[in-house]
Request: fold
Amino acid sequence: MPPSTRTYVAKVGTTLLVLGCLSLTSCAPDELVSDAKPTPTVTPLFASEEEALDAARATYEGFMSASEEILSSGGVGAERIDDFLSPALARLEKDSYAAYAADGRQFEGQSSIESVSLQRYTADASGTEPVISLYVCVDFSTVDVLDKDGNSTVLGSRPPRIPFEVEFEQDVSLPTLLRISSNTVWAGEGACDE
Reply:
């Protein structure tokens, strides 16, 4: 075969080979390529609403106990509240303990939780978003607050039971712990009703 024929055959053969390969790949289904990054799965803080309720109640009981110890000691050791409250709420509570001590008031007795009901549990909450919201009915019937002269400042004017709406967030440094982020008197009905 003359050299020009060989070159032509080689070119045709190569072209057919390339076209054959292209035809094989063009028949394969296109794979979808996505720029989306996989979204991480959020592990709920608690396995159930009951577990969430128990943890929130334990945190609130710890807060009540620490708060009453601080008030009974004239505002001393206010940093104990840091274990139960968000930093912003802890600052407010510490300011109120300082004002209480400056007025010479004395706390007597012990409050107790009469009832707790779960208002909301958001299993996938993150950051400072409330994870749990409760209605808590607190019995203050055995608690008195005395002024510097020993006179009661609350008896007769305060109801024996007060309902609170309490919100909890995850602790930023220890996400398995709860911190109270809001603790307000509940003006609605039902929290302390029997």
Observations:
- The CA atoms of residues 111 and 157 lie 17 Å apart.
- The chain has a mean pLDDT of 80.
